[in-house]
Write a structure and sequence with these properties.
Structural class: mainly alpha
Number of helices: 6
Number of strands: 0
Radius of gyration: 27 Å
Distance between the termini: 78 Å
Oligomer: single chain
Shape: elongated
Length: 229
């Protein structure tokens, strides 16, 4: 009975590990989105853009809370497994000391074992609800993140393209836009964002500063042009 319950909890732990990894990736993406929006903010930005930045901050805050809940749930699951293993080891020692209780059917439960089996059933009910709730959040945030990113990217590209072609000769504009559009697409790719986050974490560990000190950003052409004039 104990082995069966420990296996069940171990399976739940694997579920929590997978969900926590997904949440961690979404939290990193939300942090990158917020930092990018904050870096792009200009003194005379519209209220619409200010709301856009606020929404990115809200998403980051939400994912951080969900991540903390996932980590705490994963830790609670580990602790329950450790308790089960302790009780099982204790029972094995008791059985070895008294050969008359080797028959499982005739052996009465030790108090710790009975409590553990009861705790497991309560835990399974509560953790199932938590897992399902977080999975729904992950699904929603993944969908919203993809939709928002696509819409935002398209709008930003169109705005930058319009500015370039209205301020440059056609031949120059074509070359410049080719380079800028490829850069913007690369910057928003998952591979680039993943490598960027990894580089930020490595820099944080080696330098001892927070991750925010190692933000990445490329200057929009309109801003660069104003600075050069």
């Amino acid at each position: 009975k104990m082995d069966e319950k420990i296996r069940e909890i171990s399976s739940i732990l694997e579920d929590w590990k997978a969900v926590t990894l997904q949440v961690r990736n979404l939290e990193r993406a939300a942090e990158a989105d917020f930092q990018k929006a904050k870096d792009d903010r200009q003194p005379n930005q519209s209220e619409e853009f200010a709301s856009f930045v606020a929404e990115k901050l809200k998403n980051r805050t939400t994912m951080r809370k969900v991540l903390n809940n996932s980590i705490q749930s994963m830790q609670s699951t580990r602790e329950l497994i450790e308790e089960g293993l302790r009780i099982r080891s204790q029972n094995i020692q008791l059985e070895s000391a008294d050969h008359d209780v080797n028959d499982e059917k005739n052996r009465s439960f030790q108090p710790d074992e009975a409590n553990f089996l009861s705790d497991v059933e309560d835990f399974k009910k509560s953790t199932f609800r938590s897992l399902e709730s977080i999975k729904k959040i992950v699904k929603q945030m993944s969908s919203e993140s993809a939709t928002s990113a696509n819409a935002s990217t398209k709008a930003e590209l169109e705005s930058e393209k319009e500015f370039i072609f209205s301020h440059c000769a056609e031949s120059t504009a074509n070359c410049l836009w080719s380079a800028v559009s490829k850069l913007r697409i690369l910057e928003r790719s998952l591979d680039f964002q993943g490598n960027l986050l990894e580089a930020q974490e490595n820099a944080t560990r080696s330098a001892g500063y927070s991750q925010a000190n190692f933000a990445y950003g490329s200057t929009p052409y309109a801003t660069w042009r104003r600075l050069m004039q």
